[in-house]
Design goal:
The chain is α/β, with parallel strands linked by helices and 469 residues long. Among the domains are: 66-132 and 385-400, no CATH class; 147-251 and 338-361, no CATH class; 253-337, no CATH class. It has helices at 65-69, 80-90, 95-106, 112-135, 204-210, 212-217, 234-243, 253-269, 278-289, 292-299, 303-306, 311-320, 327-332, 340-354, 363-377, 381-422, 464-468, and strands at 3-8, 11-16, 30-32, 35-40, 150-161, 167-182, 188-200, 225-230, 248-251. It has a five-stranded mixed sheet with strand order 7-6-5-8-9, with helices on both faces. Strand 5 and strand 6 form a beta hairpin. Helix 8 (253-269) packs antiparallel against helix 12 (311-320) and helix 14 crosses helix 15. It starts with a strand and ends with a helix. Residues 426-437 have a biased composition (Pro residues). Residues 1-22, 34-54, 423-469 are annotated as: Disordered. Residues 38-54 have a biased composition (Basic and acidic residues).
């Protein structure tokens, strides 16, 4: 087949000989002279009409029904699935890294600022849903189908960096099912599995209220046995009193060992000479025989030593928490004596994402990111994203109704004015009939009184003197 060259303003295109000629594309510029390849810009031509023109009315924001049917995010150039992947990646890694992974995996270019903004917005939606659920009565929440036999609870706090060099405490509570297991050496051990977490940056009272969402999810009120391993802080005791007052309370053994170390240091500074291996022997005895000997020795310290600074605080710490240090009984009952699950939660849930190198957070953005971290670490991402989409649609419908209400009121008022304009005018009331004129009091042409003069009228009541006659 022979080809021929067809030259036009769009270039040289090879065409078959038998094919019909290809029409030239109309040029987007005005040719100069006889050479079509040289063009000049079109002149700006204005309308020559002398009619008066008016400004077009301002157009507000609208919605496209297909966007809602396809669940397209409002104001974004990503599909719903791409948006979900972006937020999911951002909950695991820094925003710049998440944007890079979107380019590598999906071929979608997203900036770091867009990844940050969309992730924080999605986290705020999930946070709003959980906040509303926490305020609902307990009876309205679905009950757990299979209550946990033995449930372990542990809570603690960790600090995250904020803007302007500030730090804030993030409180975390961890839940897990206690199961006995056997080590490779054949020894009996205690394992905590099926872990879940709840984290918020707030005060202790607010945290206790908001954590009710995860309490219901894990069926704390339906659990047969509950063991709470904490560091003995006062806010943790109030937290347990609110949600599970029946829980068996255990002082975290590493915290008890740390306070033993502080006590020994304080006693040495007070002038007592103590063996070098005293800390090791005291921890071993506390773990396997309980706090009875320790409490007995602390109660018999000389008054001048017990009242010194450092010693007094540690003595009060152990005397107040004697019931929480019955470690032989706790281990025999199959309970853990360490709060390792919440210590690991501080690293995995909070610090791994919010305490990276160079990270400083706006305080209002911490809780949305913690909500997303809880969703991925609890393996409930699909449920969390479904709640995010539903909350997004609800807020969109609410904004639409808020915008439509003034327009509807304006339309109703315009309609009423139109009806009043075309309504037939109301007839004016008839004037009252004229009163009959009183007859003249004088005779015509003179000043003499007529019969209708007031002087000629008969009195309605005669004087009494005349009446007696």
């Amino acid at each position: 087949m022979q080809l021929k060259q067809v030259r036009n303003v769009t270039g040289v295109v090879p065409q078959p000989k038998s094919a019909p000629p290809v029409p030239c594309v109309a040029p987007h510029c005005k040719p100069v002279g006889n050479d079509p390849a040289v063009c000049k810009e079109q002149e700006d031509k204005r309308s020559r009409s002398a009619e008066r023109t008016e400004l077009a009315p301002r157009v507000g924001q609208g919605f496209f029904p297909l966007d809602e049917e396809l669940a397209l995010p409002r104001g974004r150039n990503l599909t719903s699935l791409q948006h979900e992947h972006l937020v999911h990646l951002s909950s695991w890694m820094p925003f710049a890294r998440a944007a890079e992974m979107m380019q590598r995996l999906l071929g979608v270019q997203v900036s770091e600022a867009s990844a940050r903004r969309q992730s924080e917005q999605a986290g705020a939606l999930a946070l709003a849903v959980q906040t509303v659920l926490a305020s609902e009565p307990f009876a309205s929440s679905p009950s757990v189908s299979k209550p946990t036999k033995r449930l372990a609870i542990s809570a603690d706090g960790a600090y995250v960096p904020l803007l302007k060099g500030q730090w804030a405490e993030v409180r975390t509570v961890a839940f897990g099912e206690v199961e006995p297991s056997t080590s490779p050496a054949g020894a009996q051990e205690v394992t905590v599995s099926h872990l879940s977490y709840f984290s918020r940056m707030c005060d202790a009272q607010t945290f206790a209220t908001l954590a009710d969402v995860e309490m219901r999810e894990r069926g704390v009120r339906q659990a047969q046995e509950i063991g709470a391993v904490t560091d003995g802080a006062e806010w943790l005791q109030g937290f347990l009193n609110l949600h599970c007052p029946q829980a068996l309370r255990i002082l975290d053994f590493p915290h008890a060992a740390e306070h033993l170390h502080l006590l020994i240091q304080a006693l040495q500074q007070a002038g007592l000479v103590l063996p070098d291996d005293l800390l090791e022997r005291a921890c071993h005895r506390l773990k396997h025989r309980g706090p009875r000997l320790l409490i007995w020795l602390l109660a018999r310290l000389p008054a001048q030593i017990a009242q010194q600074e450092g010693v007094r605080e540690q003595v009060g710490y152990f005397l107040k928490r004697e019931a929480l240090m019955q470690y032989p009984q706790f281990q025999a009952a199959g309970w853990p004596i360490g709060s390792g699950m919440v210590e690991s939660a501080n690293k995995v849930v909070v610090q791994a994402r919010l305490k990276g190198a160079g990270m400083h957070w706006e305080p209002s953005h911490v809780n949305p990111m913690l909500t997303l971290r809880n969703a991925v670490c609890n393996e409930r991402w699909d449920l969390c994203w479904q709640e995010i989409e539903q909350e997004q649609l609800r807020q969109r419908e609410q904004r639409r109704n808020e915008r439509a209400t003034p327009r509807l009121e304006q339309m109703v008022s315009s309609l009423m004015l139109s009806l009043l304009r075309f309504r037939s005018p109301t007839p004016k009331p008839l004037p009252p009939p004229p009163r009959p004129m009183a007859p003249a009091a004088t005779l015509p042409g003179s000043s003499r009184p007529s019969t209708h003069h007031p002087w000629k009228r008969v009195l309605a009541c005669r004087p009494k003197s005349i009446a007696k006659r």
